[in-house]
From TrEMBL:
PANTHER family: PHYTANOYL-COA DIOXYGENASE DOMAIN CONTAINING 1, PHYTANOYL-COA HYDROXYLASE. It comes from Batillaria attramentaria. Pfam families: PhyH. Its cofactor is Fe cation. InterPro entries: Phytyl_CoA_dOase-like. This is Uncharacterized protein. It comes from the Eukaryota.
Length: 297
């Protein structure tokens, strides 16, 4: 909910809801994150911030040029563009802002750095599914020794059951890392283990409005269905790693590099459109890329 001079933030784990006049990581919010593995923040981005961010993603040719497809094994695809360094454009200001990076540092209990960001695009009536997975199911194999990593997933469009909103298993981050293997054209979590967990844990559809965000632990199991609606579903995701968890091997995402945070006001004040130095990735570097999926083309 937006006021003239003030944004009211609400965070919730679907079951629990609290309201504040500022986005502050209170002991109650921290407890929810630690117990559920995630929190949902309403109005993480204001309407003007969402519109500015969407305009950049829709109009800047660099984002278009680096967009690639993720095959879902069911003859549908989700489009994605991914980059390693935040940069100085508006998307970088969001990733470096106090309400994004600063909040993650408070939830994780120490310095973080930008691991990568991406826009995930499920187009109307065609956007493919993403299988059950943990982010650490991929990041573990990249030399990150501990699951000290976090992700913020922000809705740019309404995210509904019909257009493939995120689904989560509450508390699944406590299960530890689950084995991941090729699943339906992607790399996903062991489905036998997921089926057992579905019997024991609460399964939530995280429906959100533009500007809402879910902040979740890297071991939280999540999935999203195909977009069967006439409305697209775009989302902006920002992954962070703890500085103390610097990867021990070189890989397709960066090792520790200091994140220079900016005030929240920098998002709307930003006029820079130069995307040089962001380190865009191609489809073979996508975390869930499965070479076998190419045979389904």
């Amino acid at each position: 909910m937006l006021c003239v001079q003030l944004t009211i933030f609400t965070w919730t784990t679907i079951k629990h809801r609290r309201t504040s006049e500022d986005l502050e990581v209170t002991p109650a919010m921290l407890k929810d994150f630690q117990e559920a593995g995630y929190v949902v923040v309403r109005n993480m981005l204001s309407a003007p911030e969402v519109e500015k961010l969407k305009r950049e993603f829709e109009e800047n040719d660099e984002f278009k040029k680096h967009t690639f497809n993720i095959n879902d094994g069911e003859h549908a695809k989700m489009m994605q563009v991914c980059w390693n360094y935040p940069g100085n454009d508006v998307s970088g200001m969001v990733a470096r802002s106090e309400k994004y990076a600063g909040t993650c540092e408070k939830l994780m209990g120490g310095e973080i750095y930008h691991y990568h960001s991406k826009v995930m695009k499920k187009e109307a009536l065609s956007g493919g599914r993403i299988c059950w997975h943990q982010d650490y199911g991929y990041w573990y194999k990249s030399g990150n020794l501990f699951p000290d990593m976090i992700n913020i997933f922000t809705a740019l469009d309404p995210c509904t059951r019909e257009n493939g909103c995120l689904q989560v298993l509450e508390g699944s981050h406590k299960c530890g890392r689950i084995d991941h293997a090729p699943v339906g054209g992607q790399v996903g979590a062991d489905l036998e283990r997921v089926e057992q967990l579905l019997k024991k844990l609460e399964h939530h559809y995280v429906e959100m409005q533009p500007g809402d965000a879910i902040i979740f632990h890297c071991n939280l199991l999540h999935v999203s269905s195909k977009n069967t609606s006439p409305h697209r579903r775009w989302a902006f995701a920002n992954a962070y790693n703890m500085a103390r968890n610097n990867s021990v091997v070189d890989h397709h995402h960066p090792k520790y590099n200091k994140l220079h945070k900016v005030p929240n006001s920098a998002i709307l004040e930003c006029q820079n459109t130069d995307l040089s130095g962001k380190g865009f990735l191609d489809n073979t570097k996508a975390d869930w890329y499965d070479p076998e999926a190419e045979k389904d083309e």
